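Q: what does this look like with manganese (II) ion bound?
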Amino acid sequence: MTMQSEMHITAESIVDAEAELVAAHERDFETTRERVSRNGVDTDAVVDEVARFSVAAPSWAVGTGGTRFGRFPIGGEPRTTEEKIDDVAALNALTGANRTVSLHIPWDDPTDPVALREHAAAAGITFDAMNSNTFQDNPSTTGDGSVSYKFGSFANSDPDVRKRALEHNRAVIELGMQLGATATTVWLADGTNHPGQANFRRQFERVAECLRELHESLPDDWEMYVEHKPYEPAFYSTVNSDWGSSLLLAQHAGTRAKCLVDLGHHLPNANIEQVVSRLAMVDRLGGFHFNDSKYGDDDLTVGSIHPYQFFLVVLELLDTGGGAMPPVRYMIDASHNLKDPLEDLLQATDQVQLTLAQALLVDRDALTEAQDGNDPARAAEILQAAYRSDVRPIVAEARRRNRAAIAPLATYRRLGYRAATVAARGDESVATGL
Ligand SMILES: [Mn+2]
């Protein structure tokens, strides 16, 4: 069967494309159900929780990412924010698990937010946390060009720069309100490249004060997130460098300021699952960015380098949520210059769903018993029993119940979505972003 290239992926086109997969899937799912139920697991509850979960797609991840050395656009990339949302809608049709988009201002800067909101609503997509940008000089972030973020934004010694950075962050919130968003993420590049360049304490105090002022402008139903990162682009010191600094900043800013954990924003060998536990314990875990890291902030596909660490992180999230994913913000924060970016988002979402299903298989009562009984061998057996389980049929079933795809990547290719976007948008279109 040859399928026509389709710009709109629908539940019906997925069913048509996957007709031959259904019988084998149903057999696999029943076998899996039988296997995991032997360990007392309620398979339907696992399927329900995987089906309920959704992770935001960032608008900048539907285009190819740049590196310091070059960029290799693949053609058919979205030219406008509306087209980025069309790509997220196609992604969500296949996964059933990317129901929101996270915009980045000014890479996205809609002239008509009301029309954009309607465009998204018609595609079944709503708006997750907004992202401000005070790490680049741009007319819409620095105004008339009389200020520059070269030496920082909120940490800058010049009060005019700090004021301008606050104005940009407030404008991002106002735009978000028009779009129906209820959160904003502040990631700052502020730091230094040279020892002695700035005073650690004064920089930190300036950032803390700006964040407190920004918190005062938050609408009542909004939250704001501070995202730490140890280095890059600042290579000697970063102001919000680690979870401790991030927690101090959130606590100073106000009760609706929380910390966002990005899996790639830690020094090597950091115990990220423990960071999650600490922040959740004091009710300051606000959000999570999924990606993976080999050497630094590599923005590689989540679960592709350290899958067991990711499993342990999801276990901590489930611990926080009493056995379900807690209501914090989840986003895939990846950037790719080799894969078709939509194919990577399909794989990343699949990886999150698989890991969630594995973590849901953990016998939590038995684990608590092993922990309280000082039985590390038994605890390891319990974790491994879940982690080594093949949960692919469970995840496929969850997607199916959301009218999404049994096999998202194969079906994406079969439906010819990329060929359709190249035909519609041209083979030289390049999405905005780094
Ligand atoms: Mn991030």
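The chain has a mean pLDDT of 95. The longest strand covers residues 257-262.
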